[in-house]
Structures are given as C-alpha cells and as structure tokens.
Amino acid sequence: MKKLVIPFVAAVLSAASFGALAGDPVAGKAKSMTCAGCHGINGISSNGMWPNLAGQKEAYLASQLKMFRDGKRNNAMMTAMAKGLSDADIANLSAYYAGLK
Fold it and tell me: What is the SS3 string spanning 53-77?
C-alpha cells in the first residue's frame, strides 16, 4: 500500500503546482512573438517540423517548457528559447496557447 501512496501524492502535488501558476493569457500573447516564428502567429505552425501550440492542454505546455528550460528535454532551439523564461512567463504562455483554437 505504501508504494502506491507516494506516487499518488507526488502526482497530486505536481497537478496542484500547475493550478497555482494560473497564467495570464494577455501577458502570454505579448510574450508569444518569439514563439510565432516557428509555431505560427496564432499557434498554428505552417511547417510540419514544428508542432501547433494552439489548443494544447495548459499543463502539458507548461511541463514541456519547464523541461526544455531546465535541461530535462533536449532540443537546441527550444532549450535556448526557454532558458530565460520565468515560471510566470511559462504559465502565461501556456494559458495563452491553451486558449487558442
């Protein structure tokens, strides 16, 4: 039973931390101009090499950006772009792109 409790508690705490960082989509839109070069002005990429960001889950976007920023996910371009993002920047960008369709 103990083995099941620890992962469950970790998952709950992780999910709670995303909720605590509810982003501001207006601030995210202002910050998104850097992203638009690859991911499109409205989060829809015109190049199949780069994913669409519009409509992705907010927690997923935040998680991926944090992994790039923290070196847990490796892509030279994205790591360089995410390196200077604060937790608030990530929350704002994630809120913005999650709200697009």
Answer: CCCCCHHHHHHHHHHHHCCCCCCHH
pTM comes to 0.78
Rounded Cα distance between 69 and 17, Å, is 17
Could you tell me how far CA 66 lies from the centroid of its own chain?
A: 7
- Delimit the domains of the chain by residue range: 2-98
User: CB burial class (10 A; 0-12, 13-18, 19+) of residue 15?
Assistant: exposed
Please check the confidence at residue 1 and state whether its pLDDT lies above 70: no
User: What is the C-alpha to C-alpha distance for residues 3 and 95, in angstroms, rounded to an integer?
Assistant: 34
As a CATH number, domain 2-98 is 1.10.760.10
pLDDT per position as a tens digit, 71-92? 999 999 999 999 999 999 999 9
